[in-house]
Amino acid sequence: MTSLLKIARLGHPTIRENSVTVSPDQLASSAVQQFIDQLVETMRDAHGVGIAAPQVHVSQQIIAVEVLPDNPRYPNQVPVPLTVVVNPKIVEHDDRTDEQWEGCLSVPDLRGRVSRWLSVKVEGLNRKGQPVTLEARGFFARVLQHEIDHLHGYVFLDRLLDLKTLTHLREYELYWKK
């Protein structure tokens, strides 16, 4: 059993820092492997669909994404198996964008409409240190972009096109979620 990590909230300096790359030697260490397990467990416990290391006070370029069919925060999304990417970079993207509602574990109880590319190609390393290339569309692409933003000190609020879409979760559930 792993232990849960404390989620950093907006305002904590680690949320706005550029995170550092992880070397293959660091990635192979038992400490980083244990951290990845804790990162995934923390995401699952919070019912997140993605999490980045800076969100748990660790300034390293590690993200995890997993969309389960029964996720209470995003119940109608296409499932995505657990995907851990180290040092991820968006190397290609669709020219087309889509504006959808987003939330964040580090900005609890708020939602806003954010424009993201419809598809992305991401390169990085898997947790074993092997090169990976992900081609993602739709919600999976959105979550990857959201988590990669965290590695560079951005939160979804920075991407809002119109601040009038910012809403508390309760009001989102009552008036905007369809």
Automatic annotation (TrEMBL):
UniProt cross-references to Gene3D superfamilies, sorted A to Z: Peptide deformylase
Sorted UniProt keywords: Hydrolase, Iron, Metal-binding, Protein biosynthesis
Residues bound to Fe cation: 104, 146, 150
Enzymatic reactions: N-terminal N-formyl-L-methionyl-[peptide] + H2O = N-terminal L-methionyl-[peptide] + formate
SUPFAM superfamilies the record matches: Peptide deformylase
Record-level Gene Ontology MF annotations: peptide deformylase activity
Swiss-Prot/TrEMBL cofactor(s): Fe(2+)
Record-annotated active site: 147
EC code(s) of this entry: 3.5.1.88
Entry annotated with the keyword Protein biosynthesis: yes
Cofactor binding summary note: Binds 1 Fe(2+) ion.
Pfam families: Pep_deformylase (PF01327)
Highest taxon, organism lineage: Bacteria
Family: Belongs to the polypeptide deformylase family.
Protein's job: Removes the formyl group from the N-terminal Met of newly synthesized proteins. Requires at least a dipeptide for an efficient rate of reaction. N-terminal L-methionine is a prerequisite for activity but the enzyme has broad specificity at other positions.
Record's protein name: Peptide deformylase
Organism listed in the record: Candidatus Nitronereus thalassa
